[in-house]
Each structure stands twice: as C-alpha cells, then as structure tokens.
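Q: Entry one of two.
A:
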Amino acid sequence: MSIPVPFADIGKSAQDLLHKDFPSGITKLEIKTTAPNGVSFTVNGNKDSKSGIIHGELKTKYSDPKNGVTFTETWTTSNHLSGQIELENNFAKGLKLDINGSLLPAASQKNAKIGVIYKQASLHTRAHLDIFKTHFSADSVIGKDGFLAGVDVGYDVMDGRVTRYNFAAGFAAPDYTIALHSTSSLTVFSASYYHRVSKTIEAGGKALWDSKSNNSQVHLEVGAKYYLDNTAFVKAKISNNGVLGLGYTQTLRPGVKLTLAGSIDTTRLDENAHKVGLGLVFEA
C-alpha cells in the first residue's frame, strides 16, 4: 500500500487546476539553477501591477539524499531570513525531523519550529511545535484503496485551548480525485473534483460555503485545461461571481517557460476591473 498525501494536499489536483498558472495582476520572474555539487538556487521576483510593489526572494537548497539531509535558506527583499534543516530516515525508517527558524530584524520578530513527520503505508502524520509562540499543530491522514481521511488540529499550549480543528476526506483514482473539506473549526465547507478526461483535457471544480458569512450563497468555480501539444497548454476558469480567468503557457525551449494570464470581470466589462499578468521561468 502506498503512503497517502499529507493533509494539505488532499484535493491538490483540483486546487492546482483552478489556481496554478494564473499570474493575473502581477509580473513574475523565476530563475532556477543547480550547481554540479547539487546546490540549487532559486530567485523569485514579482511586481504587483496595481501598487507597483516588487517582492523578491533568493532561496538556496542543498540536498544529500544518501545521508537524508536537506538544508534550505531563504532571504527576501523585506529582509526576512529563514533556514530549514530536514533529516529523513536518520533515526527510523519513515521518520523525518524538520527544524525551521526565521528572523525579521526590522520588526524584531523571530520564529522557530520543530517538526516531526512520520510516513508509512496507509499513514502520513505531521506534528509541529512553534517554540516562541508555544503553539502546537498536528495533522494525520490515513488511506486505503484510494480512500483518504484526515484531521488537522492546532493547540495553544500557554492558554490551554484548541485554536483550530479541520477535517478532510477524499478518493483518488488514476483518472480523477474528489475531496471534501470542513475547515475553520468546521464552519467552512467545500467539495472539489478533478478529472483527467483524456490525454489532452483536464477538468475540475470547487464549491465552498461559509456558514458564518452573512452571504449564504455557495461560491462555485469550474475550470479546464487543454494541451495544444507537448510544449503548450491553455487554461480557463469561471466563478459564479462572473470572474473569468484565462491562461496560456508555452515552453519556448527546454528550461524556458512563458505564461500569460488575464482575469476578466464579466459583470463589469465597461469598468477598470480587469487584470493581466505575465510569468517567465528559467531553469538550468
């Protein structure tokens, strides 16, 4: 039996279809390189078309699969520093230790988390302790024959109270997945599906209802992806609010990918309520 996905990835196929490759309202640049010794560098930059604010990030990652060690450090243009050490299968098979720390000098903010991840056939469990905030979180997913069920809980150690509790269930088959979520302490409910109709067509949708919202309306979003060939695809999605999203992704050459996207509010066609965006990825 295979290892189930983590709690956050239940329904990920539908989420990726509806939200990935739609850089509307921003101009995004991403550069990925890998040195001969296995150290990888990733530079991310994006500019908000409305505010003009530019945000950048430099990430360095070193992996030693033989010894199960991964080290990642990140530095952003807001002077946010973070580092992560991952030790996998060092203490026991299927056990991973995750140590994560960050520092924001401008705001005198620091953060440190210690996490433990345990993966075995039919089980995927994660637990994290935020040392400075004394907050504990854990999630666990069990799976069998494609069926998935998971819970996610947050607990404030100092106050002695549960801060959140979420539930998810799903079913994953080779050609389709379905997922049900109850989040925000069982006040927000959602259902999603993803279907690979053929080699060139993918479809999906998501419905969401917030029981605490003054608006009792169910938010619905559906989308599709069509592969023009092995180097290009187009995506489209629309919500019940009348917002239409369009995207086009083209691999210009090996390691160079261009994405063009737009968001059109069909209920306000004569207003300045529409967005366009561009994404460019270089990988070597």
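Q: Entry two of two.
A:
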Amino acid sequence: MKVALFVIISVVSGIMAGEILSAMNLFIVEPTTDKAIGYELQRDILKGEPVNLSQIHDYRIWQKSGTFAAGAFIGTAYGSLLGIAYAFTRKYLPFTDDRKKAILLTGLLYLAVYLVPFSKYPANPPSVGEPQTISLRDHLYTTYQIASIAIAVVTGILFFKYRQVDKIKFIIPAVYILLIASIYFLWAPNPDKIITPMDTVNTFRALSGITQTMFFLLIGFFFGTLWKKFKPHESARVATV
C-alpha cells in the first residue's frame, strides 16, 4: 500500500465532495433556512420578546462565510472514514472496477451514517427546537448514529465471514433490519414540538436530503476514480538494471 498516495486520495476526494456540498447548501438550502428563521423572529416579535435583527443578520453572514471551510472539514472527515473502510474491505467487495466498489461502499456508509439516523431524526431548520434541549437532541442523534454504524459494521463482518454458509445472504440482512427497527423504537423521539410551518420544514428536509445524497455519491465517485487511476494498493515497483 502506498500510504501517502492513499491519504491524498482520501483527503482530496473528501474535500472536493465537501466543497460541492457547501455550494449546494449555500445556494439551495440556505434560502429555506432564512425563511424558517424569519418565522421564528416573527413569533418572538409577536410575543414581545427582544430581537436584535442586526446581530442575527451579522451572525448569519458569518455563518455563511464559513460554509466552505466547514465543507472541507466535513469532506476530509468522511473521506478519511471512506478510505479506512475501503482499505479493509476492498478485497471483499463485489465488482472488479474500483469505482463501482467505492460507490457501493459509500452507499453502505450513506445508509448507516445518514439515512438510518435521518429516518428517526430528520433534519430540521434552526427555528425548530428550544435552546434548552440542544444537548439532549445532539445526544440522541449522535448515539443513534453510533448505534446504526455499529450494527452495520457487526452485521457486515458477520456477512463476509460466513458468506459461504447457505442462506446467510438472507439471514444477515433480516438480522440487520430487526436491529435497526429495534433501536428506532428504543430511542426517544425528538423532544420539541414543531411550530414552524410544515411546508417550510419539509422543504428543508427534502433539500437537505438531496444535498447529502449528492455528497455521498460524489465522494464515492471521486474516491473510486482516483483510486482506479493511481492504484495505491499496488506496491511500488523496484527499478532493476
């Protein structure tokens, strides 16, 4: 394994996908976020609560200005995760083409890291949720995500280890579905009532889902394409005279 090349491929593919995600969020998702925040401000004003519009405006500008830095950070994290997972699972994945292998593995990561947690705790705009429950909501989402990843890893290992056993390709997926269904009912629901109009919330969720799906597809495509081109799994050739 060419370690330096492996690291570069993982990081570069993640950053490229992360920057595209940032651009999509900035131009597609953020207008809906602004709309949701507008509803929240209207409610606060009607309640007679003090609202510093200038401070909120400056905060949103600062927040948006850091979008691409955040995208690079998130992309690097997921690119590294994908790279480590790919290094361990490449020889077990179907297909001979590294692009197909990478996209398949990214799809599995997408399922465990994003789609399963999203099914329990769908994305909400900032106007949904009380400040007092932020820690609780973060805890619920993070632990649910960790549980989803753990179930995927354990069932995946069992599947590959016993893949020659008759009917295992039906048993392991059934076990996976049973475990995912179990944690869905074990974890507490979102503690906050949604007051923001549901059309805005659903639009935000749909757009967030689209951008996240594109992010995972792109990171898998970039990673697989770079891996196929530079072949970091091949040992360096020693020149002979």
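A: Comment on entry two: Residues 130-193 form one domain. The radius of gyration is 21 Å.
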